[in-house]
Amino acid sequence: MIMKIEKIQKEIRVVGLQRSGNHAIANWVLKQLPGAGLFFNNVLPESPFDESRLEWASDTDTTNFDFLLYSFEDRSLHAVTSPRVYPAYIGGDSPAVEKRIDIIVLRDPFNLVASRFKHGRTNALRSSYPTGLTIPELWVMYAREFIGETNFLQEYKVPVNYNLWCVSKDYRKKLADLLGLEFTDTGFEDVTNYGGGSSFDGTGLDSQASQMSTAERWLLFRNDLSYASIFKDKAILELSTKVFDLSNELHNFIDEDLAKNTRYTANIKRALACSISSPLIAYLRDLPLLRKLWRRFGLPIRSRQLSAGKKPR
Prior knowledge:
- The protein is globular, with a radius of gyration of 19 Å.
- It has helices at residues 22-31, 77-80, 109-119, 135-147, 162-167, 169-178, 225-228, 234-243, 248-258, 264-286, 288-307, and strands at 7-16, 37-40, 54-57, 64-73, 96-106, 156-161.
- Helix content is 39%, strand content 14%.
- The chain has a single domain (7-90, 98-306), classed as 3-Layer(aba) Sandwich (Rossmann fold).
């Protein structure tokens, strides 16, 4: 069921890969937003206001909200920004929005992949959603958007470096200012239970999140050949060292263990996937017939899964 929403003062969408800290960022933003609002977790690009994805609401007796926050996980930027996804898909019933903000969250790929490995090895290579891209290819797409080489997200865009967000209060203050928040840092120490919490710690360090060793997850897999094989695309190594302040130990691992295994073919495959398969899948998702079939059959199945306690991740 799609919620009826007529007016939104501030709409914020969070775009990130699973295990990149996007839940932590979304929760931190949510805890500092004043007024009446809604939070939808891990939404479908064409259906962000599906009540089955509603995780938090300050008031459901109104159709006018001070803020609305929703997140995308593991989606290609082609799908997120297709001209036929929200807000266009609702047509004349689209809410009136005063300000839209896009947050793109990026975590270094080595700890990201380690967390996904810990959560399930196939999860480190493929998304559970059809995107036309592998997870390493999606990471490169996000990284290029993060640094401004591409401009899929054309609203007011705030890139969030998850590594830096974890360790720098000054950085979090700067982000709060960019987002128009009165900085309190509320929610920073929370560990949300979305997706089972942390891949390594679960929710055991809730209220003590700063004690998690989020920058050292890669160490568990540094001698795992299947882990190293994921980093075949040279662009991953180049972008990661460009965006993140990595430790000397991780730099050595990149130079001595990963750089020699990069493949030119990985670069070609990613380029083809980004230019052909990913936009094609996004286009097919937009076709009215497929949308109708999804709403007729897909959404009811998903709703039954959610009612059985299987939260989307």
